[in-house]
Amino acid sequence: MKAVSNGSMKCAICKAGIGETFLKKMIGTIIKDAKGKRYPVCPACQQKHQNDKKEMLKAL
Ligand SMILES: [Zn+2]
Fold this sequence. Notes:
Radius of gyration: 11 Å
Bound molecules: zinc ion
Number of strands: 4
Distance between the termini: 22 Å
């Protein structure tokens, strides 16, 4: 997956912009639903849902 820069991605849960570290590594995670659609999730939401992808999908 090609990295998207300048925080153009938004968290699928809280809609906050997701940035990148200075190493161009995306902050947060990507979760996939049953259909394989990908959703970016910010670190705050990741933590709020104990990094549980099923819980994060429920929160979408
Ligand atoms: Zn979020």
